[in-house]
Specification:
By secondary structure, this protein is of the alpha+beta class. The chain is 34% helix and 24% strand. The structure holds zinc ion.
Length: 138
């Protein structure tokens, strides 16, 4: 389906309400042209004089370079929202897709019948297959 910013913003609000209990602040959502990632969460890290790290300037970018179904677009957006939730709540995960991320992903998949994943393989016909040797991380 054709992707618009308005569509993604309205989906962000919908999932924020449904899944995250309206706990996430609105952040900019952008359309991107990445050929290697379906979506990504961007932010800036600042270190003050005392070495304390703060993170700000969050945005989510969803790539328009893939021909995704509505379900795949939604799952990509929720995937990025889980990353944002973890940073926003200052949870310390074991890696970028660590045990907290995986637990939240599994819970959301189960509770809301989603198919959120960590990586996909893109076949030469442009089809996305969950997991595989050639990964598209996002
Ligand atoms: Zn991710």
């Amino acid at each position: 389906m054709e992707l618009t910013k308005e569509y993604l913003v309205s989906k962000y609000s919908e999932f924020n309400h449904l899944i995250f209990d309206d706990s996430l602040p609105m952040i900019p959502i952008k359309l991107g042209r990445s050929k290697s990632a379906l979506g990504y969460l961007k932010f800036r890290k600042h270190k003050n004089l005392f070495g304390k790290v703060t993170i700000s300037g969050f945005s989510i970018t969803i790539s328009t370079k893939f021909d995704l179904s509505e379900q795949e677009i939604e799952d990509t957006l929720i995937h990025e929202m889980i990353h944002f939730y973890i940073y926003h709540n200052k949870l310390e995960d074991s890696s970028s897709h660590g045990h907290i991320f995986k637990k939240m992903m599994a819970d959301i998949n189960e509770k809301y019948g989603r198919k959120i994943n960590i990586s996909y393989r893109l076949t030469n016909t442009g089809e996305l297959i969950p997991k595989g040797r050639k990964y598209l991380f996002f």
